[in-house]
Design goal:
Largest sheet: 5 strands, antiparallel
Number of helices: 3
CATH class of the largest domain: Mainly Beta
Helix content: under 10%
């Protein structure tokens, strides 16, 4: 009897039993019990029954043991669906049930829109250690009064096995506040000419009258008026007068005249949509004949971003209706509007007093932090109850002379009950005292170009 070649073809159970049963033959005979390799139970591993002879087994599901076919899920969201009064600096996050394919999680698959359908700019990151995707807005939420937001995790997101996430959409409302963002406008006008000799012996001819109306942006800005003349050194300087237009206020000068050398620069901090009359006069007060004088004049308007303006009044009873609601635990930026009255800047000017309102939903520990100021301005803070009662006043650090310095500082912490409160911020000192007309080369006041920053810190008790 020929031996079986096990390396070439394994023996089926049926064939082995036949052999052991004694049904043998001569070496040349092929027994009925031998396996031709075509039985249903052969070792091809393709049995529909799911088992193969010879000691091996395969799963009846087509050989898919160990392959992940379960789609990923989101197990938690921040903020939760339907949340309200969400702080504007909140990061949005989603935690997944398993390891995710990081390359599928980006700004196109994890995105946010405001209540008008406009996309919210931001950056997306994925933390593989915690299976968490995070969306960080580029600017604080609700900086344009759109406080309802929709967040989408799309079907483009997959796990490591390529299983697709069921798309998820959730909504929340950011903490409401009164910031109105806008794009500041800048403009510049250049005029030039020659004042001719003539006229009366003492006041030659030559007057240029202008009216300028500032753009309608929310926060206003400042005017830089520069008059340059080629006058002889022995003559007095020109006269520049700036006053509100008749339709915008009194006719009193807010910038005086004066001799400032060959260049006179006047600075006016202005509110939106306000008209000013500007008069430029030739040299005055001379007692001898005067030559022709060339002159040029630049009128530049620089807009500033202050989304809580207008919020200016000096006293609580006047400011209460105009105080702007602000969010808690967020760094805010604003400008004090230095304005000229007669021949100097007065800290009693209403435009210097910025008013804010904040609301507490529960008893909380509160402090107000002045984080930065212009280099030439110190800031005082005063807190008020809703009825106008003063809670706290803080002036910041003092210099050796007793003047408030332009330095960051924080108030003491006060425990306040739930309710509405008012915050007044204004310059307590101006360093140094400004002159409303700058001569050539004098430094530009830092308060015109540098905002202050502050933060109302709140911790629930």
């Amino acid at each position: 009897m020929k031996p079986f070649n096990l390396s070439r073809k394994p023996i089926t159970v049926l064939a082995l039993l036949t052999i052991l049963g004694g049904c043998g033959s001569s070496d040349d005979d092929t027994q009925t019990g031998t396996d031709t390799g075509t039985d249903t139970g052969t070792d091809t591993g393709t049995d529909t029954g799911g088992e193969t002879d010879g000691g091996g087994e395969t799963d009846g599901g087509g050989g898919t043991d160990g392959l992940d076919t379960v789609p990923p899920e989101v197990v938690s969201l921040t903020p939760t669906n339907g949340a309200i009064e969400v702080p504007p600096d909140t990061q949005l996050s989603a935690v997944f049930s398993e390891d995710m394919f990081a390359a599928t999680i980006d700004e196109t698959s994890f995105y946010v829109t405001d209540q008008d359908g406009n996309p919210v700019e931001g950056a997306v990151a994925y933390d593989a250690m915690t299976n968490t995707a995070v969306f960080t807005p580029s600017i604080a939420l609700n900086m344009a009064l759109n406080n309802n937001y929709t967040v989408v995790l799309s079907e483009a997101i997959t796990d490591l096995s390529g299983n697709i996430l069921q798309p998820i959409t959730w909504e929340f409302a950011a903490m409401a506040h009164d910031c109105r963002r806008y794009t500041p406008e800048d403009s510049e006008i250049l005029l030039e000419g020659t004042w001719s000799a003539g006229g009366s012996p003492n006041i030659p001819e030559g007057t240029e009258n202008r009216t300028v109306t500032t753009p309608a942006g929310v926060g206003g800005g400042y005017l830089t008026l520069t008059l340059t003349t080629a006058h002889p050194e022995d003559l007095n300087g020109p006269l520049m007068i700036v006053r509100p237009s008749a339709a915008n206020g009194t006719g009193a000068n807010i910038l005086p005249s004066g001799d400032a050398g060959s260049t006179m620069q006047a600075l006016v901090s202005v509110m939106p949509s306000t008209g000013y009359d500007i008069a430029l006069y030739n040299f005055w007060g001379v007692s001898s004949s005067q030559p022709d004088i060339e002159w040029n004049y630049t009128e530049a308007y620089t807009g500033t971003m202050d989304c809580y303006e207008p919020n200016d009044q000096r006293f609580f009873e006047d400011a209460e209706p105009t105080a702007r609601k602000i969010p808690l635990n967020m760094t805010l930026e604003a400008y004090m509007k230095p304005a000229y009255e007669t021949s100097s800047i007065s800290i009693n000017t209403p435009s210097y007093y910025d008013w804010y309102r904040f609301e507490l939903q529960q008893t909380s520990s509160i402090s107000v932090e002045i984080m930065s100021t212009p280099s030439d301005t110190g800031i005082r803070q005063v807190w008020y109850e809703a009825d106008g009662t003063v809670i706290l006043q803080a002036d910041g650090p003092e210099s050796d002379t007793g003047a408030t310095q332009s330095s960051p500082y924080s108030s003491e912490t006060e425990v306040l009950d739930a309710g509405v409160y008012y915050l007044q911020l204004y310059p307590w000192t101006l360093i140094p005292d400004y002159s409303p007309v700058l001569s050539d080369g004098e430094p530009f006041p830092d308060a015109f170009t540098t905002p202050y920053t502050f933060r109302v810190n709140a911790e629930a008790n």
